[in-house]
Amino acid sequence: MYGYTGNILRVDLTNQTMTTLNTRDYAEWVGGHGIATAIFFDLMRDKTVSAFDPGNTLVLMSGLFAGTSVPAASRMEMVGIQSQSYPYEWFGRSSIGGNFPVMLKFAGFDGIVIEGAAEKPTWINIVDGNVEFKDAMGLWGLDTHETQRVIFSQVSETIRDRNRLTNRADSITQWPCVLAIGPAGENRSRIATIQHSAGPSFGQGGFGGIWGSKKLKAISVYGTGNVDVADPEMLLNVVLEFRRKYGADFDNPKISDWQEYLTSHFGGHPGKRGAIFDNQRRPHGCYGCHMNCRPKTSTGLGTGGICKKGRFYQKFELAKRGRITEISGKATLLADKLGINAYVIDIDINYLRALRDKGILGPGRKIDTDLPFDKLGEAEFIEDYLHKIAYRKGIGNLIAEGMPRAAEQWGRLEEDLATGTLEALPWGYPIHYDPRTEVYWGYASLVSSRDINSHDFNVISYWIPNLDVATGKEPFVSAEQAAEIIAEKCAPYHDPLMIDFSNDNLYSIHMARTTSWLLHYSLFWKQSCGLCDNAFADFVNPYSPDHKGLTPEGEIAFFKAVTGKDISFIDTMEIGRKIFTLNRAIWTLQGRHRDMEKFDEYVYSVPSQGVSMFAGQPPSYYMPVNENGRWAYRNIVPRHLDRNKVEEWKTLFYELEGWDIKTGWPLESTLQELGLQGVAEELQKAGKLPVGDLPSIELR
Amino acid sequence: MKKRRVVKKKSFSPGQIIPESKGYLISDPKKCTGCGSCMFACSLAHEGKLNLSLSRIQILDDPLGTFPRDIHMAVCKQCLYPQCVVVCPTGALHIDREYMNARILDQGKCIGCQKCMNACPFSPSRISFDADRKIVLKCDLCKETPYWNKKGRQVCVDICPVNAIQFSAKTPDPIGETGYTVNLRGEGWKRLGMPTD
Fold first, then answer.
1. CA of B89: how far to CAs of B76, B81, B110, in Å?
2. With an 8 Å Cβ cutoff, are A148 and B36 in contact?
3. Which terminus of chain B has a smaller tally of CB atoms within 10 A, N or C?
4. Before A492, cis peptide (omega within 30)?
5. pLDDT at residue B1 is higher than 50
6. In chain A, % of residues over pLDDT 70
7. Chain B 11-70, CB below 8 Å of chain A: which residues?
8. Does the structure show a pLDDT above 50 at A29?
9. pLDDT tens for residues A445-467?
10. Which residue of B has its CA nearest to A299?
11. What span, in angstroms and rounded, lies between the C-alpha atoms of B152 and B142?
C-alpha cells in the first residue's frame, strides 16, 4: 500500500493488550485525519462520553505523505473527544510535526488507536513492529525532556541488545521518537500538550490532560522499515522540480517583511522574525522538510519554538526590560518541559492583567492570587505562572482548566465576553485571527470545534498588505492580482470575491465558499495527506517568476508520484467535504445544533480596532476589497459583525455543505451522495437525520 | 534459501598503490538542519524505497541537543587508503576506475561479513548494513542509482535544502575531519540571522 505500512496499532490500556487494524480497510479516507476520524466513528459506540472518560478513544494517524520525502509533510493527526473546547467537549483534532509521524511508519505502523485507561503510569515502546507496555512509575513526575532522555537511553540499549543477539551490525544513527506528557498533562490540565523532541507538540485540544487521565506518560517509536511509493523516480524529480521553482534559496534568500513571515507559502524560510531571541544558531527541520523553520540555539533555550511558542513572552520582556534576552527563551523551554499549550499563555496573562487593572484580581482581592505582576517580563513571573498551572497551585488550578472555565468560576465570563475583555474564538479557544476582520477564520472555527488555525488565505489577505503597508511599501502583489490568483487556484469555485473583505461581502455566498474551500482543502491536503500549514496552500510565492504559488499543481504531482493515482483537484476537495461531513455527523451525535453556533457577544457589539503592526503605529487592518468592481487594499476597521447577517451566512453555508438549515445536521441526501450510508444509519437511530434537497448547482 | 557463493578474492594486496578518488562529498555540519532529506533521497535513488537504514549517508541529530554538537554528518570520505576496500575478503568493495575511482560495493559479491564496517576508521561507520539482505551499503557517489536519472550528480547534494553538502573533485585534507568539513555559510545565511563563523 503506497505511502503506508498497512497496519494500524490498536492498544487497550485497560487490559494492556494490542491488536492491529488494516489500513487498507480505511483507504477511502486517505490518511491522517480522514482515517483517524473514520476509525473513531467506527470504534466509539457512545460518542457522548466526556473527554476524561476511559471510554474516550484517541486515534493517532500519520499523514499519507509522511515518510515519503514529499517536502513539509512529516505530520500526523490525533482525534478524540477534546478537553479544551468550552462549554462542550466536542470531538476534535490536533496535529504535530517533528520526526515521530515518519518514524512510526518505519516502526511498522501508520497509526495508533488508544483505548481505555491504565491503572498505573504506563509508557509504550514500539520497535520494528514489537510493542511493549512499560511501567512508567519512574517517569511520572518528570518533565517532557527528562522523560525523553530516559527513554532514549532505555530504547537505544534495547536495540543494541537486539542487534547483538541477532548478529546485526550496530549502526544505530537515529534517535527513537518519543511523545510525552509533562506535569501539566499528568495533572489533567485542559491546556496540557503532548511534546515531541524540542518544540513540536500536540498543542490545541487539551489532549495532554487526556493522556494524563489514561496514565499514559509516553509512546516511543523506533524503526528500520520501509515506506514504498508508486514511482520513486518521478517522486524525486517532482520534489526537486517544485523545490527548485518554489522553495527558498538559502544562499540567496528573498527577504522582505512578509516573506520573512513563514506561514502558508512554500518559499518560506527561517529568519529573525521567527527567532526567539538573538541566540538562533541553526534552522532545524522535521524529517524531509525543505523549510527548516525551527530554530536551534546553543543553550537549548527556546530551541524548536516557532511562531507563538517561540515568542509568547517577548512582548512582556520587551515592555519590562526594553530588550529581548534569554528570558523569553527560558519561557519557551519551560512551557515545553512542563507540557503547557504555549498558544494560550500570553493571551491568558493579558486577561489576568486586565482583571488586575480593574481591581478584581490580586492579593486579597475577589480573585485572590499572589502572582507577581510587578515581575511580569522577568523570569520570576513566568516561572511562577507556569509552575502554578502545571502543578495546579493557587490560581493555577483554575487556569489549568482553560480560561473560559476559570472565568466562569470567577463569575466573570458573560460580562468579559460581552465587553471583549476576554476575546475568544468559538468554543472557548483563545483569540487568534479576529472573527470581526478575518471573518472566514471565525466562521470556520464556528462550524468546527476549535481555532481552525489554517492560514491558507491569511498571507494573501492579511500579512502581505499589512506588513507592506506598515513599512511603506507597495504590496508584493496587488489586490487585483491576489483576487486573480484566488480565482485561478480555488477550484471548484474560481471566485475572486472569496477574498473581498468589504462590509457588504462578509455574509455572502462568496465568504461561504472561502470557508468551505479552507475546510475541505485543509482536511484533505494538510490534515489527511499531512502537508504542513507552514507551506500550504501556496497561493503566492516569492520565488516563482509570476509570483504564483504551486497550489494545486504541486499537491497533485506529489499525490501521483506517491500513490500512482490520477486524481483531480476537484475530487480531492470533494473528499475533503466528505471528511468534514463525517466530523459534522459526530458533532451532531454529540448534540450540536445550529442554535449553538454563535460568536461571543463582543464580536457583535464591540468594534475591532485592528492591530499595531509595529510599536508606535496606530492600529489598522488592511485587507483586499472590491469597490464597485475595482480591487484595492483598504483599512477595514473599526468593524464588528451583524448578528442577524451572521445567521443569514450560516444558512448559506449550511446549504453549500448540504446540511439542514434549521438544525445544521447533514441531510440524508448529502450522506447518500458522499457514500456515507453507515453514518446515515447511526444518525437515523439518534433521530437526527433530516431529509431535504441537495443545494443547487449554482450555489455550489 | 540459496546459499551465497563465497568468492575469496581481494581487490588489493599489501603494498599495492591505490588510486585516489576523483570525487568527494564535503559538508558543513553547522549548516545542516537535520531534516534528513539526504537520507530519504539516498535510499529512494538507490533502493526505490524510503528507509533511513538503507541510506549511505547518515545524519545524527540529537533532538534535545544544542548547537553545534547536536548534529553530526556521517558522510563517506572515499578515503585515500580505503581500509574497507583493503579488508574486504571477496573483492566486493573495490575501486571503480571508470567512475571517479570511487570506492564502490559490488552487492553480488558481498557476503555480509561486516569486516569493512569494523575497518572503517570513523564513528559511526560510514558503511551501513542491510539486515534483510545481509549485505553492506556504501556511498558510491551515486553511480548505481536506478531511481535517479541525473547520472554524474549526487542526489544528497541536489536534495539538501540548504546546500550543506557539496561535491568536490579536489582531494580534501585527509587528516582528521577538517578537510571534509567546510564552511558553506555565506552572506545569505547571515541574512537569515544565522552565524557564519
1. 20, 16, 9
2. no
3. N
4. yes
5. no
6. 96
7. 30-37, 40-41, 44-45, 48-53, 58-64, 66-68, 70
8. yes
9. 999 999 999 999 999 999 889 88
10. B66
11. 7
In the three-class reduction of DSSP (H, G, I as helix; E, B as strand; rest coil), residue B85 is classed as helix
- All cell numbers assigned to B165: 553538502
Mark yes or no for CB contact B194/A280 under 8 Å.
yes
| CATH code of A646's domain | 1.10.599
Whether residues A171 and B117 touch (CB distance < 8 A) is answered with yes
User: Which one of A428, A449, A475 terminates a domain?
Assistant: A428
CB proximity B159 to A under 8 Å:
yes
The ipTM, to two decimals, is 0.95
What is the secondary structure of B104-149 as a DSSP string? EE-GGG-----HHHHH--SSS-SSEEETTTTEEE---TTSS-TT--
Q: Mean pLDDT in chain A?
A: 94
Chain A interface, mutation test: which of B194, B196, B197, most A Cβ atoms within 10 Å? B194
Per the CB < 8 Å rule, is A226 touching B128?
A: no
Q: Which of B33, B125, B148 sits opposite A285 (nearest CB)?
A: B33
Summarised one tens digit per residue, pLDDT across range A649-671 is 999 999 999 999 999 999 999 99
pLDDT tens column, A226-249: 999 999 999 999 999 999 999 999
Q: Are A242 and A207 within one domain?
A: no
**Average of per-residue pLDDT across A430-455:** 97
Q: Mean of the pLDDT values across residues A532-539?
A: 96
- Does residue A311 form part of some domain? yes
Instruction: Report the candidate in A196, A283, A175 with the shortest Cα–Cα distance to residue B160.
Output: A283
**Residue B186 to residue A251, Cβ atoms within 8 A:** yes
Same domain, A150 and A176: yes
Domain-embedded: residue A416? yes
From B114, which residue of chain A is nearest by alpha-carbon distance? Answer: A169
Q: Judge: B45–A67 Cβ closer than 8 Å, yes or no.
A: no
A532-569 CB burial, b ≥16 within 10 A, e <16: bbbbbbbbbbbbeeeebbbbbbbbbbbbbbbbeeeeeb
Asked whether the predicted pLDDT for residue A267 surpasses 50, the reply is yes
Q: CB contacts < 8 Å between A and B, how many?
A: 177
B130–A contact, CB cutoff 8 A: no
- Residue after which a domain boundary falls, among A428, A450, A484: A428
Distance CA A522, CA A379 (A): 38
Residues of B in contact with A198 (CB under 8 A): 63-64
Cell 548478529, located at residue: A167
CA distances for A98 relative to A22, A302, A312, angstroms: 25, 16, 21
**Host domain of residue A511:** 439-542+568-609+640-685
